[in-house]
Design a protein that fits this description.
The structure is a single chain. The protein has seven helices and 15 strands. It has helices at residues 25-41, 52-65, 115-120, 123-133, 197-204, 259-266, 271-287, and strands spanning 43-46, 70-71, 76-77, 98-99, 103-105, 139-140, 148-153, 159-162, 169-175, 183-186, 212-214, 221-224, 230-233, 242-247, 249-250. The longest helix is centred in the N-terminal third of the chain and has 17 residues, at 25-41. Bound molecules: fe (ii) ion (FE2).
């Protein structure tokens, strides 16, 4: 690997995606294509976004930390990540629990000098994501455990159908499964006013009519609006891991995850989480 300090631009294919030059026609073209895809499908892929150097460096960093990955004890969830509700009919989507195997290399495994974190903190990347999503201002997520993580889909694992709680997700595939491990989604299956339970039930029952499979290659950047589009990663039927780098951004500074969610998904919390929770409780007390 090249010597430090790392130039984040060397990790991106800047010949096609000149981050830091927003007036360049190639930058503007990427925005147009990405925004069109997002509007139509709730999903956009920017192919070969990472340079060969960037991909090999980020993959090496993930593989070096793979032994530290945490696998959640919760292995079955419904598409809403909510509890069972016995008052509903047995075939209600809220009562359909599917296998989910979650493994993450958490962000505390990366120090600030790692290439992955240098890229994540790069203002030109944040600006580009912001422009693609049409947001006024994005900030890095300040959660010390989960701001930038790697999802590990080990052989035999799957991340079953679900909706995201966050509006958008930014990922870079570092390593594909040799077989299986495909990203599938149903664009705009629900909307802000309607859960569309019948349509959700149909997909969970195996109806593939509206299901799209998104081909992804290592080095691609994916932007996904997962709040309304049901999605999953199919079972990894190969013999090696599928590795996906997830970068989180927020529309306000200082946002971090809850104690409960960090414990469940990542197996750890920090002083910062506990402090934030105390402040939340206090704020609620004042409201009362
Ligand atoms: Fe998701």
């Amino acid at each position: 690997m090249p010597k430090l300090p790392i130039d984040p631009a060397s990790l991106i294919d800047t010949s096609h995606y000149p981050l830091g030059s927003p007036h360049d026609t190639r930058y503007q073209k990427s925005l147009t294509v990405t925004r069109t895809q997002l509007e139509r499908d709730g999903c956009a892929v920017i192919p070969d976004f990472l340079s060969p150097l960037g991909l090999s460096w980020l993959l090496t960093e993930a593989e070096e930390r793979r032994k530290s990955a945490y696998f959640s004890a919760i292995t079955k969830t419904n598409v809403y990540f909510s509890a069972d509700d016995a008052s509903l009919a047995e075939d209600h989507p809220q009562r359909i629990f599917l296998e989910r195997t979650n493994g993450f290399i958490t962000s505390d495994c990366y120090d600030d000098s790692s290439a992955s974190r240098v890229l994540y903190n790069w203002q030109a990347l944040i600006n580009f994501i912001q422009d693609c999503l049409g947001k006024d201002q994005l900030y890095i997520y300040e959660d010390p455990v989960s701001d930038m993580i790697v999802n590990v889909l080990k052989p035999g694992s799957q991340f079953n159908w679900h909706f995201d709680t966050n509006e958008f997700t930014i990922t870079m595939l570092l390593k594909s499964a040799v077989s299986g491990g495909h990203f599938e989604y149903v664009p705009n299956l629900r909307n802000a006013n309607d859960e569309c339970y019948d349509e959700v039930r149909a997909v969970l029952s195996g109806d593939t009519q509206r299901v799209a499979c998104l081909p992804l290659s290592p080095g691609d950047l994916q932007l996904f609006l997962g709040r309304f589009s049901l999605h999953r990663v199919t079972k990894n039927t190969g013999l090696s891991d599928r590795l996906l780098l997830i970068m989180s951004f927020a529309e306000k500074p200082g946002i971090i995850g809850s104690v409960e969610r960090n414990r469940e998904l990542y197996g750890k919390v920090t002083e910062k989480h506990l402090e934030a929770q105390t402040q939340r409780v206090r704020a609620d007390g004042l409201m009362d």
